[in-house]
Amino acid sequence: MAGEAQDDCLFCKIVAGQIPATIVRETETTVAFRDINPQAPTHILVIPKAHHQDAAALAAEAPQLAADVLRETQAVADDEKLESYRTVFNTGSGAGQTVWHAHAHVLGGRGLEWPPG
Ligand code: 5GP
Ligand code: ZN
């Protein structure tokens, strides 16, 4: 069922504390941790604790939780003292999604080209 932890999901395991991560923020509904392969000086992932497979599913299945994730991206940027930053949701393998648990990338601390490569 939507929202239930999945045994084979890396990010559900991070939420459960079964895989270590550098957690920078946590709320009742969300966790933010540093990306293991950072693409910028600040590269933090904000995820809902509940499992939803991508951003669109999260918005459809749990809109309040989607709002919680977005609010936390700003909180992360504030903590990191980022005036400018980019929030990215990769959706689908063609767009680079590799983990099927919704997550926002928060990237900052360097110049960011637009449009991205
Ligand atoms: P996606 O490619 O699905 O948009 O983003 C998945 C992100 O998760 C990638 O940027 C990748 O570096 C990161 N990642 C993959 N495995 C781990 C892990 O075990 N720990 C952490 N902290 N990040 C991970
Ligand atoms: Zn999951």
Write up what this structure looks like:
The chain is about 25% helix and about 20% strand. It has helices at about 10-15, 55-60, 65-80, and strands at about 25, 30-35, 40-50, 85-90, 105-110. A five-stranded antiparallel beta sheet has the order 1-2-3-5-4, covered by helices on one side. Helix 2 (about 55-60) packs across helix 3 (about 65-80). Zinc ion (ZN) binds next to helix 1.
Q: How are the SSEs placed, and which strands pair?
A:
Layout: H1 10-16, E1 23-26, E2 30-34, E3 42-48, H2 55-61, H3 63-79, E4 86-88, E5 104-108
Antiparallel strand pairs: 1-2, 2-3, 3-5, 4-5
Helix pairs in contact: 2-3
Zinc ion is lined by residues 6, 9, 11-12, 51, 101.
Radius of gyration: 13 Å
Low-pLDDT segments, ≥5 res: none
Number of helical segments with 4 or more residues: 3
Q: Distance N terminus to C terminus?
A: 36 Å
Strand order of the largest sheet: 1-2-3-5-4
Proportion in β-strands: 15-25%
Q: How many E strands?
A: 5
Mean pLDDT: 97
Ligand set? guanosine-5'-monophosphate, zinc ion
N-to-C order of helices and strands? HEEEHHEE
Structural class by helix and strand composition: alpha+beta
Helix content: 25-40%
The general outline is globular
Largest sheet: 5 strands, antiparallel
Pfam family, one: HIT
Organism: Streptomyces hyderabadensis
InterPro entries: Histidine_triad_HIT, HIT-like, HIT-like_sf
Protein name: Histidine triad nucleotide-binding protein
